[in-house]
Design a protein that fits this description.
The chain has 472 residues and is α+β, with helices and mostly antiparallel strands. It folds into four domains: 30 residues; 244 residues, Thrombin, subunit H (Beta Barrel), CATH 2.40.10.120; 87 residues, Pdz3 Domain (Roll); 86 residues, Pdz3 Domain, CATH 2.30.42.10. It is built from eleven helices and 26 strands. The strands form four sheets. Strands 5-4-1-2-3-7-6 form a seven-stranded antiparallel beta sheet. The longest helix has 28 residues. The radius of gyration is 25 Å and the shape is globular.
C-alpha cells in the first residue's frame, strides 16, 4: 500500500511539473508583451541595479556600479551586396562596425538607443557588459526624436529605472555611461549645464523634429550615442545623443534626450511599432524683447503663434495668430523647445491645458491634440499576411511546443516573388531572420520593414532545419 502511494505521489508531481514547464515555456515565447508601458513594468519588476537611496555625500561609485551592467554596446552590419551563408557574416560586401551604445530598460530585454545608431543597419548585435552577445530586432524607431527601441531574447537582465528629467536642475551632478571609441563601460561625470536646448541637428520630412536636450559637461565622444545619462541615484534621466564640436570629438558640451520624452516614445513603439504624435497644429517662435516691441506684447517670455493651421487642435480650442503661449498643463514654457517636448509627450486624442496671453489677459483652454493627418485617434499599422507572393499564417502555441520552436510563421501557399526565387517551398516555417527569432506574422512584418539587401532566413521544412539567402 505504501509503495502504491509513493508511486502515485511521484507520478502526480511529475505531471504537475510538466504542466508548469509547458505553461512557462509558452509564456516566455509570447512575442507581444502583456504590458503596454515599460514604466509600469519597471515598477513591478524591481531592478537589481538600482540602489535604494543616495548618500548626501557625493558618491559616483555607487551610481556607476549600478548603471554599467545595464549599458550595452551596439554593433551594426551595413551593406546590400551578394548574400553569404558564412556564419556571423551576412554579406561579403557588408560593413560591420561598432556603432554606439544602448540602455536596457526592462528585465526581459527591451533596449533604448538612438535612431542614428541603428539607421539603415541590416543586422544589429548587442553586447552586454558581461560580454554576452545577442542579435536584436528593431521594434520601432523615430527619427524626429532620434530614438529607437530594440528587443533581445533574454530575461532577468539588469536594467535602469526611469528618473524624472523635469526634476533635474542646472548644477546637478550627472554621469554619462557608454562605449566611446569602442571602450566598453566608460563612465564620465559632469553637471547639468542647461535644459531644453535646441541645437538644430535633427531633421524630419514634416518638420516635426523635437529638440529639447539636456546639456551637460560630462565627456561624451563617438560611441557614447544611445548611452545613459543618470543622476547619482542611478536613475536614467536622459539618452546621450550629440556633442557640440568642431573636431568630431568632445569639446566641452554634450546633449541628451530627456527621459520624460523617452518614456512616451518607448511606450508608443512598444505598443504600436510607431510613434503616436499629438500636435497642436501651430507655427511658433520664441518671444524676444524685439518681437515683444514689434508686436506690442505685454510679455517678453513665451511662444508667439505665427499661424494656426486649419482644422488643427489649436484652431478648435480658439487659439489665434498673435497669441503668446505661456504654459502647458500648468507648466511654464519659455521656449519653442520646451513647448514641443511637453506636447510631444502626448498622443492624439489626449487633452492638454494651454495657457496663453491675448490683449493683456491670460486664458487657459482645453485642447484635444490631433495627429499629422488631423485626426484625434491612434494609428495602428496594418499586419500583412500576404508578402511577396507568400500567404503567411501564425502557428499555434501547441504546434510550436510540439516542434520545440520559440516562434515561427508558416508559408501556407507560395506564388512568384522573392521567397520563391530564394528556393523556399510551401510548408516552410520561418523561425529566424538574421539570427533573430520570428515569433508570428506581426513580428515578421516588423522585422522586414527594416530589412534591405541580403538576409539569412532560417526555418524548418518537413522537420529538417533549412537555411535560405534572400535578397530583399
Amino acid at each position: 500500500m505504501r509503495r502504491f502511494l509513493f508511486i502515485a505521489v511521484v507520478l502526480l508531481s511529475a505531471g504537475i511539473g510538466a504542466v508548469i514547464g509547458v505553461v512557462y515555456t509558452l509564456r516566455y515565447m509570447e512575442s507581444i508583451p502583456d504590458y503596454a508601458s515599460i514604466a509600469e513594468r519597471q515598477n513591478v519588476r524591481t531592478s537589481r541595479s538600482i540602489p535604494g537611496s543616495v548618500s548626501p555625500i557625493i558618491n559616483f561609485e555607487t551610481a556607476a556600479a549600478a548603471v554599467t551592467p545595464a549599458v550595452v554596446n551596439i554593433n551594426t552590419v551595413f551593406g546590400a551586396g551578394e548574400f553569404s551563408l558564412t556564419p556571423m557574416d551576412l554579406n561579403f560586401d557588408a560593413l560591420a562596425r561598432p556603432s554606439g551604445s544602448g540602455v536596457i530598460i526592462s528585465d526581459d530585454g527591451y533596449i533604448v538607443t538612438n535612431h542614428h545608431v541603428i539607421e539603415d543597419a541590416t543586422s544589429i548585435e548587442v553586447v552586454l557588459n558581461d560580454n554576452q552577445r545577442y542579435f536584436a530586432k528593431v521594434i520601432g524607431k523615430d527619427p524626429s526624436t532620434d530614438l529607437a527601441l530594440l528587443k533581445i531574447k533574454a530575461k532577468n537582465l539588469p536594467h535602469l529605472r526611469y528618473g524624472d528629467s523635469d526634476g533635474i536642475v542646472p548644477g546637478e551632478w550627472v554621469l554619462a555611461v557608454g562605449n566611446p571609441f569602442d571602450l566598453n563601460s566608460t563612465v564620465t561625470a559632469g553637471i547639468v549645464s542647461a535644459k531644453a536646448r535646441n541645437i538644430g541637428i535633427l531633421r524630419d520630412k514634416n518638420n516635426l523634429q523635437v529638440e529639447s536636450f539636456i546639456q551637460t559637461d560630462a565627456a561624451v565622444n563617438p560611441g557614447n550615442s544611445g548611452g545613459a545619462l543618470v543622476n547619482l541615484k542611478g536613475e536614467l534621466i536622459g539618452i546621450n545623443s550629440a556633442i557640440a564640436t568642431v573636431t568630431g570629438s568632445y569639446s566641452g558640451y554634450s546633449f541628451a534626450i530627456p527621459v520624460n520624452l523617452v518614456k512616451k516614445i518607448m511606450d508608443d513603439l512598444l505598443e504600436f511599432g510607431q510613434v503616436q504624435r499629438g500636435l497642436l497644429g501651430v507655427e511658433i517662435r520664441d518671444v524676444s524683447a524685439r518681437l515683444a516691441q514689434d508686436q506690442n506684447l505685454d510679455v517678453v517670455k513665451g511662444i508667439y503663434v505665427n499661424r494656426v493651421n486649419a482644422g488643427s487642435a489649436a484652431e478648435a480650442s480658439g487659439i489665434e495668430h498673435g497669441d503668446v503661449i505661456t504654459a502647458i498643463d500648468g507648466q511654464e514654457v519659455g521656449s519653442v523647445s520646451e513647448l514641443q517636448e511637453l506636447v510631444a509627450r502626448h498622443r492624439p486624442g489626449h487633452a492638454i491645458q494651454v495657457t496663453y496671453r491675448r490683449s493683456g489677459k491670460s486664458k487657459t483652454v482645453k485642447t484635444v491634440l490631433k495627429n499629422f493627418e488631423g485626426r484625434a485617434s491612434i494609428t495602428r499599422p496594418e499586419v500583412l499576411y500576404s508578402i511577396e507572393g507568400a500567404k503567411l499564417e501564425d502557428i499555434s502555441y501547441s504546434e510550436l511546443s510540439r516542434k520545440n520552436l520559440e516562434g515561427g510563421v508558416l508559408i501556407r501557399t507560395l506564388g512568384p516573388g522573392k521567397w520563391k526565387v530564394a528556393g523556399m517551398r510551401e510548408g516552410f516555417i520561418i523561425t529566424h531572420i538574421d539570427k533573430v527569432t520570428v515569433d508570428n506574422v506581426e513580428d515578421l512584418n516588423r522585422i522586414l520593414e527594416y530589412k534591405s539587401g541580403g538576409m539569412l532566413v532560417e526555418g524548418l521544412y518537413n522537420g529538417t532545419k533549412t537555411v535560405y539567402g534572400v535578397n530583399w
